[in-house]
Amino acid sequence: MGSVAAALRDAAQRLAGVSDTPRLDAELLMAHALGVERQAVLLDPARFAVPAGFAALIERRIEHEPVAYIVGYRDFWTIRIGVGPGVLIPRPDSETLIEAAVAYFGPAGPERILDLGTGPGTLLFAALSEWPAATGLGVDASNIALDYANENALALGLGNRAELLLGDWTAGLDGQFDLILCNPPYIADSEALMRDVAAHEPAGALFAGADGLDDYRRIIPELARLLAPRGIAILEIGATQRILVTSLAETAGFAVQCRRDLGSRDRALLLTRP
Predict the structure, then answer these.
(1) d(Cα 30, Cα 8) in Å, to the nearest integer?
(2) In sequence order, what DSSP letters do the residues of the chain get, joined into one string?
(3) What pLDDT shows up at residue 1?
(4) For a Cys-Cys bond, which of 74, 86, 136, 206 suits 144, CB 3.0-4.6 Å?
(5) Average pLDDT across the chain, whole number
């Protein structure tokens, strides 16, 4: 069997037609097949032999199965989030929401956090990992997502600080939260998606009506009663939705700022009381 370096080059070439990050995909799949971290493969590939299962993993990726589903996780912020079929895969762009929260609260942090549409716990657990004294509530309408969230809470040692609830956005919630995070579905029903996403990730976590704004219309009017006086709600938006979602938030009485992601795209709206 050939070397790991050669196998990675070959795999990256084969993946170039299905992935924007073929070399990274190959490295992650090699590390997974070897049972080590990617960094170990990069530092000294010659110490490893190509594992028998690597070729099968590459074939799965060629069929557009997301790498995160194949390896069972996605690294996000400072934590590792376990994921699988039926769960939205964390995106690096969503770290913009955590960056905005850190900039707003500083080291002291919020006391109480709400994550609406928590999925596998992505934003909630990233925030809790940032502020060890905080507690939080994650709400999601998917039992599959909450199963992953519960597993992630235990794996991250956050089980005693995070409550997870099956629910429909803000319905039935009371109390006030210093930080409200939300990455709702915001893709228009008619929008075409990459095959990796469209064929594998849950439609309910992606699509939100004819203009992609259906869930913002439900969520934003409810935020005022849940947000503590000096708190902040941070919502992820699509790159072209700033004006429309800002209008919804201002109509609900919020002052609104926008934060851009690393690609300089509008990504997070920061809602505070005027």
Answers:
(1) 8
(2) --BHHHHHHHHHHHHTTT-S-HHHHHHHHHHHHHTS-HHHHHH-GGGSBPPTTHHHHHHHHHTT--HHHHHTEEEETTEEEE--TTSPPP-GGGHHHHHHHHHHHTTT--SEEEEET-TTTHHHHHHHHH-TT-EEEEEES-HHHHHHHHHHHHHTT-TTTEEEEE-STTTT--S-EEEEEE----B-TT----HHHHTTS-GGGTB-SSSS-HHHHHHHHHHHHHEEEEEEEEEE--TT-HHHHHHHHHHTT-EEEEEE-TTS-EEEEEEE--
(3) 47
(4) 86
(5) 96
Closest CA to 83 of 93, 94, 72: 72
Domains of the chain (ranges, CATH numbers): 4-63 (1.10.8), 73-272 (3.40.50.150)
